[in-house]
TrEMBL record:
Localization (cell): Cytoplasm
GO biological-process terms attached to the record: nucleobase-containing small molecule interconversion; pyrimidine nucleotide metabolic process
Gene3D superfamilies, per the entry: P-loop containing nucleotide triphosphate hydrolases (3.40.50.300)
Catalytic activity: CMP + ATP = CDP + ADP; dCMP + ATP = dCDP + ADP
Protein name: Cytidylate kinase
Domain Cytidylate kinase span(s) in chain numbering: 7-215
Gene Ontology CC terms: cytosol
UniProt source species: Conchiformibius kuhniae
Similarity-based family: Belongs to the cytidylate kinase family. Type 1 subfamily.
Signal sequence, start to end: none
């Protein structure tokens, strides 16, 4: 059976997909694709161009010509470093809105596939295993309890894990996950051929080790 040299890691917001995927990519000497960044960049680009996130044709036209560049963990839009700007929850909501539009997803499809070079790829997002790399050699659904995920996001933003601001982070995460699950186009879900990695009680190191163990199990011939 044909298998692409791709480890596809999908899952809900703030579960640790990006951190784990980037670490696994570095350990294996592979390229890394943060597919969510493309949807975030599209949302920011639309906002800057005065285009509504619901205007499917106009947003898709912008996505098809997205003036984005990636280098390491930094990302540029039309020459400006927007690495921090695209991480706001407002742009996260915008990303979720534009990601529900089939024409936008189609416009970004080839761009995501172009990240796969000879060294192989580790890709994270919502539909890496289902749509972008259906023949990935290893598919993982990486998740954690919503409250644990909200705590991780709060720590990233230097916000205490109690109080109104924390509760807002939790409800924003739950609202975005719910929208991503309910949409018709590439909904967030665990595929039958994906392995479940619940990191609620796992450190980053333990999560990375589990992915690498699964990868080695697949790539080493059994005795
Ligand atoms: O990409 P995604 O939104 O799924 O999550 P992330 O940005 O990689 O991770 C969110 C935060 O959780 C980061 O600050 C990670 O360092 C942290 N994290 C953690 O504390 N424990 C894990 N097992 C995985 C991630
Ligand atoms: O970091 P976090 O998990 O919060 O979000 P992200 O991976 O940067 O993705 C932002 C939004 O883009 C998600 O809520 C999804 O709606 C959308 N997305 C998608 O539809 N398909 C992907 N492959 C990646 C992201």
């Amino acid at each position: 059976m044909f298998m692409q040299k791709v480890i596809a890691i999908d899952g809900p917001s703030a579960s640790g997909k990006g951190t784990v995927a980037a670490r696994v990519a570095a350990a294996l000497g592979r390229a890394y694709l943060d597919s969510g960044a493309l949807y975030r960049l599209t949302a920011l680009h639309a906002q800057q161009q005065g285009v509504e996130w619901t205007d499917e044709a106009a947003v898709a036209a912008l996505a098809a010509e997205l003036p984005a560049e990636f280098s390491g963990s930094r990302v540029w839009l039309a020459g400006a470093d927007v690495s921090e700007q695209i991480r706001s929850e407002n742009i996260g909501m915008g990303a979720s809105a534009v990601a529900a539009l089939p024409a936008v997803r189609a416009a970004l499809l080839q761009r995501q596939r172009d990240f796969l070079g000879v060294a192989g790829l580790v890709a994270d997002g919502r539909d890496m295993g289902a749509v972008v790399f259906p023949d990935a050699e290893l598919k993982i659904f990486l998740t954690a309890d919503a409250r644990v995920r909200a705590e991780r996001r709060a720590k990233q933003l230097h916000i205490p894990c109690t109080g109104i601001e924390f509760e807002r982070i939790l409800s924003d995460i739950e609202a975005r996950d719910e929208a991503d699950r309910r949409r018709a186009a590439a909904p967030l879900r665990q595929l039958p051929d994906a392995r479940l990695l619940d990191t609620s009680h796992l450190s980053i190191d333990e999560s990375v080790k589990q992915v690498l163990d699964w990868y080695r199990e697949l790539s080493e011939p059994t005795a």
